[in-house]
Structure to design on (363 residues):
């Protein structure tokens, strides 16, 4: 191995987080949400590891679903946004994909195709106004699908806009609208809960939960880390110091010379940059560990490198080859995200293919 940037993914942690989600709702089945390359962790490797434990997988597109099938995943796979083109129904029927259904194109093209599909989740817009139909239309869709005889089971789903904000009443309002819709329909299985709702809201029991970010040990809440929620972080991003120099008080560093040394200190160049997924917006002071000791970003993030300094100068100088933890073990990704003006979801999901990926937990 040459460039020393490695994303180590702990598959056992992901399985353990999945089991934790199910423990919180023992009457529910759970999708393992592995869209967007399992939030940057590697969809095929994650799904292969969870296969046999996960009740089903959920992805955002038929391409993501087919990638899993081609890798040998036999469990049900759900398309969270449904089909984008009528021709996709043929593949759904053939491959046993389950789908969300949220518009008339999706409904009519299924009826026109006339082939049986296993499960359809009619998507209710309970207040987020991104996907879904209102309660009357949802009830009509459920009836039409049931009458068609083409669908093994018709379920009702919705998605929360603000479940990560425990002080916001929107989730309560969305749940109330969901219940009103269920009353219009009569007996129907439900799927409402993402990670935040699984961990902190009271959601309908039975049916399906849809944990995503929590599987990867990352918190959906701004004010608390995954570890504090009892989750096991799944990804640790590490690299090494590749160059060391001494800067003097007043020296400026990096593109734009945006960092200025307030005292004499060692400046350590580390092999990671925004070309790997490390956020360019990370501010001076973004935390990391160098040889297990607290360190921080000092200078603008480049495509392939960053510059850093140790928080406390030590009598033992840092050296080329010292290990750097950028996030994961000992450095919550949520903290790095905070310093970069974003959320943990985005940091892991936008990892590029440049880091070496190492999987722990496989035989
Ligand atoms: C419809 C749907 N369900 C579940 C999830 C998983 O959400 P989270 O990662 O917050 O658990 C997502 C993710 O965006 C989603 O779009």
């Amino acid at each position: 191995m040459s460039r020393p940037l490695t994303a180590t993914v702990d598959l056992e942690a992901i399985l353990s987080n999945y089991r934790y989600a199910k423990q919180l709702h023992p009457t529910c089945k759970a999708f393992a949400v592995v869209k967007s390359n399992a939030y940057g962790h590697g969809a095929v490797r994650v799904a292969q590891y969870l296969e046999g434990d996960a009740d089903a997988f959920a992805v955002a597109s038929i391409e993501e679903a087919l990638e899993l099938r081609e890798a040998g995943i036999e469990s049900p796979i759900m398309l969270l946004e449904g089909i984008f083109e009528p021709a996709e129904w043929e593949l759904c029927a053939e491959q046993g994909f389950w789908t969300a259904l949220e518009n008339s194109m999706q409904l009519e093209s299924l009826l026109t195709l006339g082939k049986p599909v296993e499960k359809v989740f009619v998507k209710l817009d309970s207040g987020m106004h991104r996907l879904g139909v209102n309660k009357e239309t949802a009830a009509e869709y459920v009836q039409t699908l049931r009458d068609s005889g083409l669908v093994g089971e018709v379920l009702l789903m919705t998605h929360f806009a603000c479940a990560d904000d425990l002080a916001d009443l929107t989730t309560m309002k969305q749940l109330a609208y969901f219940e009103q819709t269920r009353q219009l329909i009569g007996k129907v299985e439900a799927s409402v809960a993402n990670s935040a709702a699984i961990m902190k809201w009271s959601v309908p029991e039975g049916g399906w939960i849809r944990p995503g970010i929590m599987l990867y040990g990352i918190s959906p809440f701004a004010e608390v880390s995954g570890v504090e929620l009892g989750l096991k972080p799944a990804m640790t991003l590490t690299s090494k110091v590749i160059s060391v120099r001494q800067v003097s008080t007043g020296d400026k560093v990096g593109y734009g010379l945006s960092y200025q040394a307030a005292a004499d200190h060692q400046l350590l160049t580390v092999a990671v940059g925004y070309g790997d997924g490390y956020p360019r917006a990370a501010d001076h002071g973004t935390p990391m560990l160098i040889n297990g000791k607290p360190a921080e970003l000092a200078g603008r993030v480049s495509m392939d490198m960053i510059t850093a300094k140790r928080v406390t100068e030590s009598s033992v100088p840092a050296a080329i080859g010292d290990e750097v933890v950028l996030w994961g073990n000992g450095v919550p990704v949520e903290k790095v995200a905070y310093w970069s003006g974003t959320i943990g979801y985005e940091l892991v999901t936008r990892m590029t293919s440049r880091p070496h990926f190492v999987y722990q937990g496989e035989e």
In short: The pocket of pyridoxal-5'-phosphate is lined by residues 33, 80, 159, 194-196, 210-214, 220 (CB under 6 Å).
